[in-house]
Task: structure prediction
Amino acid sequence: MTYQDYVLKYIDDHAGEITALAKSIWENPELGLKEFHASKLLAGELEKAGFSVDMGVADMPTAFVAEWGEGKPIIGILGEYDALPGLSQKVSAVKDPIQAGAPGHGCGHNLLGSAGFGTVVAVKDYMEKNGVKGTLRYYGCPAEETMVGKIFMARAGVFDDLDAAVTWHPGSTNSVWGTKAGETSFQAMNSFKVQFKGRSAHAAANPQQGRSALKAIQLLDTGVQYMREHIPPEARIHSVITDGGGAPNVVPAFAEAWYYVRAPKRAMVESIYAWVQDVVKGAALMTQTTYEIDFLTGSYEMLANYTLGINLLENMQKIGGLKFSAEDHALAKEISDSVPPQMLQATKQSLFSSLKPGTTWEEIGEYLNETVVIPDWDTKISIGGSTDVADVSYITPTTNLITTTAPLGTPGHSWQNVAACGSEIGFKGAILAAKVMALTTLDLFTKPDLLQAIKDEFVKSTGGKKYVSPLPDGAKPR
Result:
C-alpha cells in the first residue's frame, strides 16, 4: 500500500475522533490566550498518540509544541483553536445564540487545530510502521485572531529549525491561498493602544482647570483621517475608542483608543506607524496632555511558497474534493439566504478575484464548493486581513491550504460561519484538509528533491535575510 493510500484510509478510519475534537472545541469556544479546554484537549490526545508535549511555550499557557521522531527533515503542522467574541450561535440557519454575547468559532478554528491533529497522527503512524526518518511537529498556536500566538512563538525561536511548515484555513472553496514565488498576500500590521492622561474638572463650573484626554483622542482621530489621502491606497488604519470617559459633566482625565495599521509590506506599516506616532504627539501638545503608546503586536505580510502551494493543490486534486449530502446542501442554502444580497454578491466577487480567470459558478457550485478550484497564481492578490502565519512564512517555507467549511459568499467572522463550522459541512472540510496536509507532509519527508526546491525558493524570496521580530523589547503576550 502506498503512503498516499495508507494515510487516506487512516484518516477515514479515524474521522470520528477528529470530528469529536472539532465538535468539543466548537461547543467550548474560548478567546485568545484563554483556550484552556482546547489546548489541553489537543495536547492530551497528542500525548496519547506518542508525541512529547512542551506546554506553555513563549510565555503563553495555551501554546504548546508536540514532537515525535528524530533528525532531519523537521516538518511542522500549525494548529489554531481560538474563538471570536460575541458570535455564539447554534447550528441553525437563523441567528440564535447559544449564550448571548458569548464567543463563537466564526473563523473555523475549532476545525483548524483538529484537522492538524488528524494530519500528524496519520503521518506519525505511517512513519513509525515504515521506518521513515525525520521529526514531526504539531504547533498549538493560541490567539491568532488577535495576532499574538505565532508572533510571540516566532520571537521565542520555536520555528527556527523547521524545514517547512504546512497549515490550512477553513473557507468556502477547496483551493490554496497562493501566489507566484516571492509574492505576498495577507497584510502586515501593527496593533497598539494610545492612552492620554489629562486633568479632571467640572465640565460646566470650571472646565478651564481641566485638560481633556478625550479631546486628545478626538484630535488624534482627526489627524489620522487627514493622513488617509497621503498613504498608499492599499493601506488601512482602523480604530475604536476603548475608554472615552465616564460622564459628560466630568472632563476626562484618561482616554484610550486601539488602532490597527495594515499595509501590503512591513516597511509600509512601519512608515505609517511612525507618522501616527507624530500625530499622537501633536494631539498631546494641542490638549496639554501626556500620552503613552502601548504596542500590542505586529506582523509581516504573508510570503506564500509557490512550490509548496502547487504540491498541496496537486494532492487535493488527487483526493478529488468533497461530497456533501442533500442535508448539507439544504442547510447551506438556508444559511446563504440569511445573508443580505448585496453582502453576498460582494463576498462572491472577492472570491472570484482570487481564482483562475475564466472560473464559472458552474465549476464552483451554487451553495457549496465540492470541486477543487485553481487559484490565480499570476495575480498579486492582496487579502485585506492579516495572519500571524505570515511571520512563520519568513522563517521557513509556508503555504496555506483552504477547504470548504461554509457556504459560498457567507462572510467570515459571522454567526453564519459559526453555524456552518459546527455542522457536517465544517467537519467534512476539516477531514479533507487533514488528508491533503498528510499527503504533502509525507511528500516532504520522502522526496528530498521536492523539499530542496521548496527551500531554494524560500531563500530566493527572502534574499537570504533572517527574520527579525516586529515586537519591541519587553513586549508580553496579552
